[in-house]
Design a protein that fits this description.
alpha+beta; two-stranded antiparallel sheet; globular; 223 residues; binds glutathione; Glutaredoxin; Glutathione S-transferase Yfyf (Class Pi), Chain A, domain 2
Length: 223
């Protein structure tokens, strides 16, 4: 199985399945390619997909789109317990994952994922602020109702945490007022071995994509 991903520093959608693979140490070969490069496009053109990353290739299947890849990996490796076992928790986990996948466009546009940069004083629009509030409500709701068994949204690490990890990366780049429970969840994500590995790779990656860098005063983030 091969997972094609984009740059560690910028490819938020790639981070999600990569994190799941890394967290569970799955036997998946990772091929990282530079976003927008001819090499990536010609690689993607060899497969049926939307010409975007991430893309998972198996001997018999091509799976594109981050959430579909996560689901496929979870089905292929059920020992990962990709979704909560209990039915209601599982439905909520799927709901919040789908919400992540289809929403939060203002935040995404205003704060592109960039693991290397902190933008002091960046002011979010009203729409993006509302999205940030909604995200924090989701995290609190999941933690309060379903998180008793561990530090992740549903206790143990699930697809929902993989889906929201790039949001935690975005939160590192801006000043966001957080309650203690939200801070604790962000720390769980940031301090997990798999996320630290992703950030290290982003920091050490030589490529820079100017279009994904905000033209604002910034400071360098460390791991
Ligand atoms: N819905 C897709 C989004 C994938 C996506 O937009 N990937 C970006 C990189 S993070 C990409 O490939 N961009 C290249 C392009 O749009 O040409 C998913 O969840 O996987």
């Amino acid at each position: 199985m091969q997972l094609i991903i984009g740059n560690y520093n910028y490819s938020s959608w790639s981070m999600r399945p990569w994190l799941f693979v890394e967290y569970h140490r799955l036997p998946v070969e990772v091929l990282k390619m530079h976003l927008g490069s001819e090499a990536l496009l010609s690689k993607l053109d060899q497969h049926f997909s939307d010409r975007k990353v991430p893309l998972l290739i198996t001997d018999t299947a091509e799976v594109w789109d981050s959430l579909a890849i996560l689901d496929f990996l979870g089905e292929h490796y059920p020992q990962t317990k990709p979704w909560p076992i209990e039915s209601e928790a599982r439905a909520v986990a799927r709901s919040v994952s789908a919400e992540m996948h289809s929403s939060f466009n203002a935040l995404r546009a205003e704060v592109p994922m960039n693991c290397r940069r902190y933008y002091p004083g960046l002011e979010l629009s009203h729409s993006a602020q509302k999205e940030v509030q909604r995200i924090m409500e989701i995290w609190s709701y999941c933690r309060d109702r379903f998180g008793a068994g561990g530090p992740w949204l549903f206790g143990s690490f699930t697809i929902a945490d993989a889906m929201y990890a790039p949001v935690v990366m975005r939160f590192r780049s801006v000043d966001i007022e957080m309650s203690d429970d939200i801070k604790a969840y962000c720390e769980t994500v940031n301090h997990s071995t798999a996320v630290k590995e992703w950030i290290d790779r982003a920091l050490n990656e030589p490529e820079k994509i100017e279009a994904a860098e905000l033209d604002l005063p910034s400071q360098v983030l460390n791991s």
